[in-house]
Amino acid sequence: MSQEEKVGDLAESVGYLLKQAATALHASMDAVLRPQGLTVSQYSVLELLGHEPEQSNADLARGAFVTRQSMNEVLRGLQERGLVARADVAEHGRARPTRLTPAGHAALGGASAAVARVEKRMLSPLPPAEHAGLLAQLVACRDALTGEDAAR
């Protein structure tokens, strides 16, 4: 195996550093969401529904990066707390769209503000002019691995 076929020094591995950054972001989000009684997955659902109401379990699972089975548990917990509402029966097929309740909108407001502060802290070492470039580079990296058209 040639040197080009190995990851090499982890301190210079983009993938490894990206995973470290993602783990640090998750831990920081967890720290600000826990006092609000939310997990990162629960917050993700609230944020997803705040942007696009009436999503199915499968759509929410994809958006929150969890399995459909795990999403059932997340939704059950949010529903028991009165933060989301789901139809008792599906109008079409088996999908039961979920929506935020007024309490869910209120919880999302505080949680989203807390997460925005975490993201601001994460980006603070970078000049503001570089934020858009970083975003574009991350999208390009994601698209290269998922086969998405980078010209979207």
Automatic annotation (TrEMBL):
Domain annotation HTH marR-type: ranges: 11-143
Cited Pfam families: MarR_2
InterPro entries, sorted: HTH_MarR-typ (IPR000835), MarR/SlyA-like (IPR039422), WH-like_DNA-bd_sf (IPR036388), WH_DNA-bd_sf (IPR036390)
Lineage: superkingdom: Bacteria
SMART domains in UniProt: HTH_MARR
The name this protein goes by in its record: MarR family transcriptional regulator
Natural source organism: Cryobacterium glucosi
